[in-house]
Structure formats: C-alpha cells, structure tokens
Design goal:
mainly alpha; Cytochrome Bc1 Complex, Chain D, domain 2; two-stranded antiparallel ribbon; 5 helices; about 5% strand; metal-binding; oxidoreductase; Cyt_c-like_dom_sf; electron transfer activity; metal ion binding
C-alpha cells in the first residue's frame, strides 16, 4: 500500500467529501421543509398573532428573552410561557398581568421595563406567545421552566 497521498487522492477526498456533505445538507433541508407545515401550525397565524410578533420585535423583547432558543439569555425563555403559566386556565391573563405589573420592584431580581402597551398590544403579545407555545419544537425547551 502506498503511504504517500498524491495530489489526485487529496483532490478526490476533497470533492467526494464536499459532495457527501452537500447531499446531507440537501437531505436535511428537504426533510425540514416537508415537516414544517405539520409542526408550526401556520394555519393558526391570525392578524392578532402577526401584530403580537410586531410588538415583540418593535420592543426588542428578544434583546433580553429567548424564544425557542433564539435571543438573549438575560431573561426567561418564553417559547412555552403560555403553557408554563396556566395554558387554557389563565395563560393569556397571566402574560398580560405580568407585563402590566412590570417593573416588579422586587430587590435583587432583574427588572423588566414597563412598555406601556395598549390593551390591543397586550392581547396580541399574549396571543403571539400562545401561538409560539403550541409549535411542535420536538421537546424544546428541555424543561417546563425553559
């Protein structure tokens, strides 16, 4: 066996490896694109959910919170806050009351600023977080507290 790698061998390894990883990437992309409609329940995106996402973005909530693992880790993950704080039994009310009550003034705790959202904006953010909580994330976050 020849122990010396030739330029031809190195080229074949490079092109073969590149082709292999391009095919893996395309396969994973295709699999993701096929499964997304079943997992993200996009049929439930209403104008109110869209407004909630806009309020979320306009107030840079992701600057402190994470949403489905994306964002800053200064404040809690909110991908499942609706389920974590009551779900059908008060999740929407909890989210709205929590936002209204900020800053909490509890010493030693991080404080969320008061954004002075209107009732329509509060409803929209809570609805957006409810919609987010219902996405099939394959078990993310790994525990109920995010």
């Amino acid at each position: 066996m020849n122990e010396k790698m030739t330029i031809s061998m190195a080229r074949n390894i490079f092109f073969g490896g590149s082709l292999f990883f391009v095919l893996v990437f395309l396969g994973l992309t295709l699999g993701t694109m096929r499964s997304l409609p079943e997992r993200d329940h996009r049929e439930n995106i209403t104008p109110q959910v869209a407004l909630g996402k806009k309020v979320w973005e306009d107030n840079n909530c992701v600057g402190c919170h994470t949403l489905l693992g994306e964002g800053a880790y200064f404040a809690p993950e909110l991908g499942n806050v609706y389920l974590r704080r009551g779900g059908k039994d008060g999740g929407i009310d909890f989210i709205k009351d929590w936002i209204r009550a900020q800053p909490s003034g509890v010493e030693g705790r991080r404080q969320m600023p008061q954004f002075n959202l209107t009732e329509e904006e509060l409803d929209a953010v809570a609805t957006f977080l409810k919609w987010t909580s219902e996405i099939n994330t394959a078990g993310w976050p790994p525990n109920i507290e995010g």
